[in-house]
Amino acid sequence: MTNIADDESTEAIIVASCKQTRFHISDTDKSTEIDIAGLSLGIAPSGAAGKAKKGKGKTASAQEKELLVNAELRLKSGIHYALLGRNGSGKSTILRALADRIIPGLPPSLRVAILQQTSTDAENLSPAKDGPSTSAPEDTTVLQHVIEGDQSRTALIQDLQALAGTDSDREDVIKQVRRYRQMRYNRLNRDLLEVQNNAYRRSGARGSQARKDLIAFEKEVAEATEKLAEEIADPDSPAIQDEFLTASSLLVDLEAELETMPLPALETRARSILTALGFTEATLAKSIPTLSGGWRMRAALARALLQKADLLILDEPTNFLDLRAIIWLQSHLIALRDSQAGTTVLLVSHDREFVDSVAEEVILVKEQSLEYFRGNLSAYEEDFRSRVLNLTRMQEAQGKETARLEKSIRETIKVGKKTGDDNKLRMAKSRQKRLEDGAGMQVNEKGQRFKLSDRMGWFDSKHAAIEIPKDEQGVAISLPPAPDLRFPGPLISLEDVSYRYAPTSPLVLQNITLSLHFGDRIGIVGLNGGGKTTLLNLLTESLRPNKGVVTRHPRLKLGYYSQHAVEDLQTLGRADAGLTALRLLAEDSAGELAEQEMRGLLGSFGLQGRTASDVPIAKLSGGQLVRLALVRILWSRPNLLILDEVTTHLDYRTVIALGEALIDYNGAVVLVTHDRYLVRRVVEGEVFTDDGDDEGGRGEEEEDNRRRVVYSLSGGKMKVLEKGMEGFVRVMEKRVAKMGI
């Protein structure tokens, strides 16, 4: 079975194929389980895909980028899964293929809701057709946009609006029949796209039947079109009276069905979700196009959560959320998991604590395949370390035993040949057989002794070879060291600083005192709108205080990663289609760095070779753009790094790699983030043991030389969190509980 999702407006399309068996789900099956064998998924240029469609049975060209090859996709009803993998492994494409039903063999009745990150899509794929969209008419308010996400109710209202007239009109046969014909025409055209997609997506016997269904459906659409244009000459004719009675009966049914979906209840749920995600009454009334990208994504998340879905797909749902909203979403998904709703959740997130709390099982995208683990992320990592340790010990033990037996065999053969002792030669042959039979795994993956049926092909040994699994490491990140200051003093000092944007507006920051020294690790946490960005603008001299004094070290070199850094790079990429990472860095450094130095720096952030010199930045993924933005501020070797929401667009392994690099960095770090792990690791210096727990330990050198403080910023006032990030999390959990949502 093969599916090809094509879009002439895009530069790339998704190609999917899988094995078809007689056990595939029928069109009338109401199952929401997904079990697809032999799944292959790739990205191909639209031209190549067109050739593939014309070819006999071919689904890809030589230019296709293969993401999955002969994988098995299994999603059980009601289970919450975390989809993990490196940036570029295809996670977002898998989610898109599911939501757009590009993957053959999906249950036909499966209801899918999706939150998809589309702003940094490296493959330039169009947004998903199903689920929430971040686009809306200019006059659509946030609340309306979210409520309209209930697709079944929206379709019902569309039918009612087409069919219902005034009370007096309902007795007018001609008007009512015309409205009925219009409603039927609208409904058929609304459903036509799905019927067409079924015909294009399927192959074999089911594909043949789908194409027959399409022909029949198109005939029905043509008849409805003719009926719509037809004049009604005799309202008393039997045919017209039948249509009138059908319309009247359908209108009653639609009105009764709408009563089971009361708008007040739906609006109450929508308001609750939006409030939990940070919207106020004022922002609920704003139109969607007037919102920033972050707020539009929050609205899209609310729209996805409001839908009654069998499969809820969340691609980086914690992006743009503050910690209170993250904890609420975490609680909401846990409650959904524990309910009887039976909703399957498939999520991608860089927030490891969020993933640990929500996911019951892990799906790892690795080496163009899908690996499954029953348990959360921490349990998976612990199990992986345990397997590597056990297999390494087994391999070492077998290596020693093999060396001993080989030595014994050589000596026995030597003695047997020298003395002509056939018994010695037979003994050597027996030992050789024992050596061959004993090599490899001693038990199968079920913990049982190997049988011949366990052998995956022909081996010299009866056992499978011992293979040490390789970890899917994130990009290795290395930060250039900061130069010495030569004479002491704070890098930046704020003394009793206050700021307001206009003389009559309220204070955004009030009496802030803060001193940053070389080597400091400072974390700043707080809710959205608490003044964090304004504070950073004062530190970077983008703003000047209305009151108080800001002093800077004369030798200060400051590197500032803005939360809009990725958007800024995308804007540059759109303005100059040929702009590459290497050329951009050359322009930034203005000749201060040789090409070899620039390539080395880009390579230390995972942007090697042709990725740096040939791939336009408009084609880079979100994670690659984050790393490029970091290179742009690090080439000059700053001694103070200010990082504002740097984890957005990174996979969780790259977040870990960045955290380790920041630990080794000798300069000062100011970290503004909602990522609990990063604050605990980088700022508070917690050491996570092999079992995933933290010891709160710190190296002696770090303890002596580094000041570690976590501040909370709320209502323009800043205070030290005596209990650190953990204390802030507890406060947010209590606030969420009090919200009663």
UniProtKB/TrEMBL annotation:
* Alphabetical list of InterPro entries matching this protein: AAA+_ATPase, ABC_tran_Xtn, ABC_transporter-like_ATP-bd, ABC_transporter-like_CS, ABCF, P-loop_NTPase
Where would one find coiled-coil regions in this protein?
none
What GO terms are given for molecular function? Answer: ATP binding; ATP hydrolysis activity
Specify whether ATP-binding is a keyword of the entry.
yes
Q: CDD domains in the record, alphabetically?
A: ABCF_EF-3 (cd03221)
- Keyword list, A-Z: ATP-binding, Nucleotide-binding, Repeat
Q: Which residues form the ABC transporter domain?
A: 53-392, 492-716
Name the source organism.
Answer: Pseudogymnoascus verrucosus
What highest taxon heads this organism's lineage? Eukaryota
Among Pfam families, the record links this protein to:
ABC_tran, ABC_tran_Xtn
Record's PANTHER family? ATP-BINDING TRANSPORT PROTEIN-RELATED, ATPASE, PUTATIVE (AFU_ORTHOLOGUE AFUA_1G16440)-RELATED
Full protein name: ABC transporter domain-containing protein
Say yes or no: keyword Repeat present. Answer: yes
